[in-house]
């Protein structure tokens, strides 16, 4: 279908999805696909989860919007639920990931200003992705995405991912924060060494820098804990999340821990839609599902199964350079560009994503079962082997 009224920001799109149920989606021709993309780590509970649908319908007939001039019951309840799930202290709600990061960056700048630093700097990492607004684009460590949008905001320095030395080399007296994805998503599902994040936490403590974790993609159960930082024994000062929080209803959140919670004061920040009744009631239903007994254990089990199965089928295959992941966030890196695999997978009734040019990224719904994991493994294994054979 021609989409002439739509600006060409997403390139050529060939498939129209019209319906979803659980881990499956259907296109306009009636073909069914196993969805290993989940709307880019959004529909963790699968498509049209009854608890989510109920929350939306209920709230739509109760109160959709009223603005933050008034208290909003589901907003307060969602704040409580996220604090309970994470051990963080306070929440600010936005409508997207980039906006959650904007809140985090404003906290970092005000934190610096209050310390008497006139030009505060935030260190981010190479291959990072933090969003498409001007501040988050400036924070992003990927020249391809940034190209054409200079001048960028000042106050961002980039350091190599997974290297404490690189962070130290990028630091100076103006440094106020380090902002990082616990697992880089768009950058290729890059998982750091086990020691890296705890060491970074320690460094930030020593230097008086805020540790800002961008958990927009890794949050809400994706890596097998509610937030990825919970794999380690520390708290970030600031955490952002979005994608999986609303299971498809747009919502983001910026959470704070400790003194960072008191930096933004009345009048400092806000959003017309942020935390509105519809979005927060829906996200509350999502958090309730993810925090149910056994849910996150299931994600861990399925994640381990998926990773182990791929190591078995593709681990020794020439042309496959890395297989890595955490929970149900998996990357299979090839030694060559492999964007064509997206269409090939579709012909095999499977939706996959390719990121960073040469990495297959799998982000299946968290409710996926063992049989569906096996289906992903057999389809991806087959198309990767065929792809590598015909290319050689
Ligand atoms: C998707 C993503 C963003 C941007 O979120 P939007 O909702 O698209 O603004 C920022 N950071 C990370 C790590 C992401 O995965």
User: What bound compounds does this protein have?
Assistant: pyridoxal-5'-phosphate
**Overall mean confidence score, pLDDT:** 97
Strand ordering within the main sheet: 4-10-9-8-7-5-6
End-to-end C-alpha gap: 35 Å
How does the helix and strand content classify structurally?
Answer: alpha/beta
Choose one word for the global shape.
globular
Largest sheet: 7 strands, mixed
Task: Say what the CATH topology of the largest domain is.
Answer: Aspartate Aminotransferase, domain 2
Extended strand count = 15
Number of H- or I-type helical stretches:
12
SSE succession: EEEHHHEHEHHEHEHEEEHHEEHEEEH
Q: Enumerate the spans where pLDDT stays under 50 for 5 or more consecutive residues.
A: none
Supply the CATH architecture of the largest domain.
3-Layer(aba) Sandwich
Helical percentage: 25-40%
CATH class descriptor of the largest domain? Alpha Beta
What is the element layout, followed by pairings?
Blueprint: E1 17-21, E2 24-27, E3 32-35, H1 38-41, H2 50-60, H3 73-86, E4 90-94, H4 97-114, E5 121-125, H5 134-139, H6 143-146, E6 156-159, H7 164-170, E7 175-180, H8 196-207, E8 210-214, E9 238-241, E10 252-256, H9 277-290, H10 295-314, E11 320-326, E12 329-334, H11 341-347, E13 350-351, E14 353-355, E15 359-362, H12 370-391
Parallel strand pairs: 3-13, 5-6, 5-7, 7-8, 8-9
Antiparallel strand pairs: 1-2, 2-3, 4-10, 9-10, 11-12, 12-15, 14-15
Bound molecules: pyridoxal-5'-phosphate (PLP).
